[in-house]
Specification:
By secondary structure, this protein is an alpha/beta fold. It contains 14 helices and 8 strands. The protein is about 35% helix and about 10% strand. It binds zinc ion (ZN). The site of zinc ion has 6 residues, from loops.
Length: about 375
């Protein structure tokens, strides 16, 4: 074999090993919001002090032990309701639209009026994670457990979605598959799984699960009934893990980001019980068992994040906690796509989920070559 060819093969072997060790960008991302899943309450389930427990949550535990996570992310500073926070999660903006903020400005928590969109309410246009994924040719889907999520379907449909100015033109309808069903029990998750097992799976999916919110309002956050509803959600996560294993294209090629819109809405004993939410990241290349705050300590190009000293945070200046609204720019980062235009949270896409210290220069070089090749 000629020497140059041997050299190329050796380099390829090194690149393959390094790329595998570090993890290549996943081609599928599943972003999950578990409505009302307060971080302090999930913490009690994890540490065995939850009322009526102990409870087995093997799939939340798997997200924690195999992924990077925190139970102390923060929702919007000025809002602990479902729809404003979900607009933040999907657009990467705060709610507050006062001068200097450029927030999404959606303050209502009811079903939107007919024809009302995020864009007519702000205006101008409020771009979302669906815009970026769709315009770059990725199939997108939204599976929601409350009727108010029609806001996103209406805002990003073939009439109200923005023009796709990235060639080729995939059109204005940014959400390829939309499914909204208010029934509890996992029909939303089952419908999502059926899509992923079909011949045309979504590359970016948003899945909203309502059990803890419904049971929180009905029986109280942290009650035995509420805790049991988290166990029910854990079973849904198990189905999603199994689906990832069952679909060859998704196996070892899928990331999960799981967060929540808010904690206890009704009678929180502490501010943390209302404003603290979990943030889990799982998938290829994610540092197993890592604390997201330890990874994002401002070193080696990583983001600087600090657990909130008080709940709620009263400013978006200075040291900031990890936010539920960072989920979508992280999702796009994992998919090797840029941030949502006009967004604030993790716009720089510096929130990291692998441990930066393990990224050797060789690995970075290999990654750069792999990314150029795609
Ligand atoms: Zn909610």
């Amino acid at each position: 074999m000629p020497a140059p060819r041997r050299l190329v093969l050796a380099l390829c072997a090194i690149l393959a090993c390094t790329a595998t060790a570090w993890g290549v960008a996943p081609e599928y991302v599943i972003e999950i919001s578990v409505d009302g899943l307060g971080g302090t309450y999930l913490g009690k389930i994890f540490n065995g002090t939850a009322t009526g427990g102990p409870y087995a949550v093997p799939n939340f535990t798997r997200l924690k032990t195999e992924g990077a996570s925190t139970l102390a992310a923060h929702c919007d500073n000025n809002n602990w309701e479902t729809l404003p926070n979900h607009v933040s999660i999907l657009t990467g903006r705060p709610r507050d639209n006062s001068p200097g903020f450029d927030g999404h400005n959606w303050t209502g928590n009811g079903d939107p009026a007919v024809g009302q969109t995020l864009h007519t309410n702000k205006p101008p246009y409020v771009a979302s994670v669906f815009d970026v994924a769709h315009d770059n040719g990725l199939r997108t889907g939204m599976y929601a457990n409350k009727s108010k999520f029609s806001l996103f379907d209406t805002s990003y449909n073939a009439t109200n979605g923005a023009q796709d100015n990235i060639s080729p033109n995939y059109g204005r309808d940014k959400i390829d598959n939309t499914y909204i069903d208010t029934a509890l029990g996992g029909v939303v998750v089952d419908t999502f799984i059926a899509q992923q097992k079909s011949g045309s799976p979504n590359r970016y999916s948003f899945v909203h699960i309502n059990e803890p919110d419904a049971n929180g309002h009905g029986s109280g956050w942290g009650s035995a009934t509420w805790n049991q509803s988290v166990v029910t959600v854990d079973g849904m996560l198990g189905k999603i893990f199994q689906m990832i294993q069952d679909v060859p294209a998704m196996r070892n090629n899928t990331a999960i980001i799981l967060t929540a819109d808010h904690g206890n809405q009704d009678n929180p004993p502490t501010g943390a019980d209302r404003y603290q939410v979990p943030f889990f990241v799982w998938g290829p290349g994610v540092t197993a068992g890592a604390d997201l705050y330890a990874l994002n300590n401002g070193q080696n190009g990583a983001a600087m994040r600090k657990v909130a000293a008080n709940y709620p945070m009263t400013t978006y200046a200075g040291d900031q906690p990890i936010r539920n609204a960072e989920a979508s720019n992280l999702a796009l980062d994992l998919l090797d796509l840029g941030p949502i235009p006009g967004s604030t949270f993790d716009y720089s896409q510096t929130l990291v989920v692998p441990e930066p210290a393990t990224m050797s220069l060789l690995a970075l070089g290999a990654l750069a070559m792999l990314r150029r090749r795609r």
